[in-house]
Specification:
By secondary structure, the chain is of the alpha/beta class. The chain contains 15 helices and 15 strands. Strands 2-3-1-4-5-6-12 form a 7-stranded mixed sheet, with helices on both faces. A 6-stranded mixed sheet has the order 9-10-11-13-14-15, with helices on both faces. A two-stranded parallel sheet has the order 7-8. The N terminus is likely disordered.
């Protein structure tokens, strides 16, 4: 306990001293605010930097610094990095420090960072522009009411996890399955939302759903055992941070019962899930928010009139080492659709790495303008969302 307090104190101190000044205060400053470093973030960031580099806002040498997560005092833009070190209690201090530094653009990653940053800045008379990415439940989290009914200084890209397709995999793997289990952390919006979606679509397939509640990662083994004792034939994990990071603990408990564990992200197989399936276009998330930021810096984007973008995508991944360990045969229909496979400890990626299409800067700006025009919050669109408040939500 003492060690944890010391670590948290050091994290807060780091937030309070980093970084003190910017070399060129005339350049727009982007503050990158994250909950913690993640593999999905590592895929999203290149999409942002690719766009900003293509728009000649960063040079190749400046890009090298950003790829190393280093602060940039650049020729055209500045970038500063702040991290909450996986602790929600650090987010407020992180945001306040960023505001003290006078950042012009807040780039938030994850639902909790975006939620808290939006709540803090909404009370400001002249808040900085705020763009978000890797957020799975912006409306349930209260970040916005709908794509266009939102705070005027906030927009971003909403990754729409295809829970219906995810849950349907249970039937592909076990056609006669009757009962699935899932785990919820009531303190996390994205966890609650994920479990509600898993439950809704599982029941639509005629499945019984058992839900175990947790308060911390330490509860995961017992939660898994409780689900096994209730006769679940599969555990399906949603997008909550506690559950997703605790997949190994879930697996250790599930192994004794031979119960497969599916996770709602392809990258869950890195932690041992038998199958991971969910939103997989994180590079595209970065490209979208990069387009927004580039247009904003260029003076071509009105945030108040720009809807939150929604991206829908699914990718499947399989851990054949887990399958062998559990004595499970993965269904051909799942294996044939996999974009990633782990076998004998080796990860094989079966898809091409994403990149921007080649075009001139003039062509790119025209293409971006056409894309962003589709996100315009016209009076008609706003009226439609006001008339049907739940139609375009999570």
């Amino acid at each position: 306990m003492l060690r944890r307090r010391i670590v948290l104190t050091l994290v807060i101190l780091a937030l309070l001293v980093a970084p003190a000044a910017l070399a060129d205060e005339d350049n727009p400053t982007i503050a990158f605010l994250r909950y913690r470093a993640t593999g999905t973030e590592d895929i999203t960031k290149p999409g942002i930097w690719d766009v900003l580099q293509a728009h000649e806002l960063i040079s190749p040498s400046e890009r090298e610094l950003l790829d190393e997560n280093l602060d940039l005092n650049g020729e055209h833009i500045n970038v500063i990095w702040l991290d909450a070190a996986s602790d929600v209690t650090n987010i407020n201090a992180m945001v306040e420090k960023t505001l003290d530094l006078g950042a012009d653009i807040l780039l938030t990653f994850s639902t909790p960072v975006t939620q808290i940053t939006a709540n803090i800045t909404k009370e400001m008379d002249d808040p900085p522009a705020m763009f978000f990415a890797i957020v799975s439940a912006p409306y349930s989290a209260g970040i916005a009411d709908s794509p266009c009914i939102k705070m005027p200084h906030v927009t971003g890209t909403h990754m729409s996890i295809p829970y219906e397709q995810f849950v349907a995999l249970s039937k592909l793997q076990q056609p006669d399955i009757q009962t699935i289990g899932t785990i919820v952390d009531p303190a996390q919006t994205q966890s609650v939302y994920g479990v509600s979606q898993i439950t809704e679509f599982a029941q639509a397939l005629g499945l019984t759903v058992e839900v175990a509640s947790i308060a911390s990662a330490a509860d995961l083994p017992q939660a898994t055992v409780s689900l096994a004792d209730k006769g679940v034939e599969m555990v399906m994990i949603g997008a909550g941070y506690t559950e997703s990071r605790g997949i190994p603990a879930v697996l250790n408990a599930a192994k004794d019962y031979g119960i497969p564990v599916f996770g709602v992200s392809p990258r869950f197989i890195y932690h041992g899930a038998l199958v991971g399936a969910g939103f997989d276009d994180f590079y595209g998330e970065g490209v979208t928010v990069g387009r927004m930021i580039a247009a904003y810096i260029d003076g071509a984007l009105d945030i108040s009139a720009t809807a939150i973008s929604s991206r829908v995508d699914i990718g499947m991944a399989v851990n054949l080492d887990t399958a062998e360990e559990f004595g499970i045969t993965v269904a051909d229909s799942i294996l044939d659709g996999a974009v990633m496979v782990i076998e004998n400890g080796e990860l094989t990626v079966l898809s091409e790495p994403p990149s921007l299409p080649e075009m001139t800067l003039e062509e790119r700006k025209a293409d971006d303008a056409a894309f962003l025009a589709e996100l315009e919050c016209t009076p008609e669109r706003i009226a439609e969302e006001q008339a049907s408040p739940g139609s375009a939500r999570d």
